[in-house]
């Protein structure tokens, strides 16, 4: 059950990235991190910026799955945290580019 939830959430993250890619204004690079002033401190190529969190979620869940012997203790909590962080990141990118 938890594996199915994790897979569904990862697919939702990927879908959110595809939607964001179509809706965000054209830009070769997208912000990845913001400083305390609210200004981006570094950016990444568009594809990397939109795929980083889903890829990190897949790797993290896979490591937890393998390390726990085929179980996902707390996997649902971890994956929902990744989803929340990804959606926040996409929202912040849109806000920065003037497309909230």
TrEMBL record:
Transmembrane segments: 46-67, 74-94
Keyword Transmembrane helix carried by entry: yes
The entry's keywords: Membrane, Transmembrane, Transmembrane helix
Entry superkingdom: Bacteria
Protein name: DUF1648 domain-containing protein
């Amino acid at each position: 059950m938890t594996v199915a939830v994790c897979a569904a959430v990862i697919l939702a993250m990927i879908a959110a990235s595809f939607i964001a890619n179509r809706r965000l204004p054209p830009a070769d690079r997208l912000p990845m991190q913001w400083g305390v002033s609210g200004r981006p401190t570094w950016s990444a190529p568009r594809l990397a910026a939109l795929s980083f969190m889903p890829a990190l979620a897949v790797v993290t869940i896979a490591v937890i799955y393998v390390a726990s012997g085929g179980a996902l203790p707390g996997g649902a909590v971890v994956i929902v945290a990744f989803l929340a962080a990804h959606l926040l990141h996409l929202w912040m990118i849109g806000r920065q580019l003037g497309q909230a």
